Amino acid sequence: MRLLANENIPLSAVGALRACGHDVLWIREKSPGITDIEVMELGHREKRILVTFDKDFGELVFSTKQPPARGIILFRIPMISSAYIAKALVKVIDSRDDWEGHFAVVEENRIRIRSLKRD
Questions:
Q1: Are 25 and 46 a contacting pair, CB within 8 Å?
Q2: Which residues of the chain fall below pLDDT 50?
Q3: pLDDT for 67
Q4: CA distances to 2, 59, 84, 85, 109 from 47, in Å
Q5: What is the C-alpha separation between 90 and 105, in angstroms, rounded?
Q6: Architecture in CATH for domain 2-115
Q7: What's the pLDDT at 118?
Q8: Around Cβ 40, how many Cβ atoms within 10 Å?
Q9: Cα(109)–Cα(56) distance, rounded to whole angstroms?
């Protein structure tokens, strides 16, 4: 899967996703400090699903005309440790294959998914 890891995704999680065969572009490596709009543009341009802990993307994607990334996965899980985050991200991302075209909110015991299609 082609993923775009936001700056708030730990290095261990990026490494774990790569080790599982995912093509991960990490904002910290590619363009540290870019705005959320620029992150969305990059995800759209590179045809990648954005993985983030930043709640601002929920409002941004639905309140602007900005073309979204291919999909957005917003994690709302506790930051117990970077190892915990790495395991959780890999488990959740590998659990489905329908992330593209959706905005997903991942919580400890559930995943809520909404279409990114605009009327």
A1: yes
A2: none
A3: 66
A4: 7, 21, 27, 24, 28
A5: 15
A6: 3-Layer(aba) Sandwich (3.40)
A7: 58
A8: 22
A9: 22
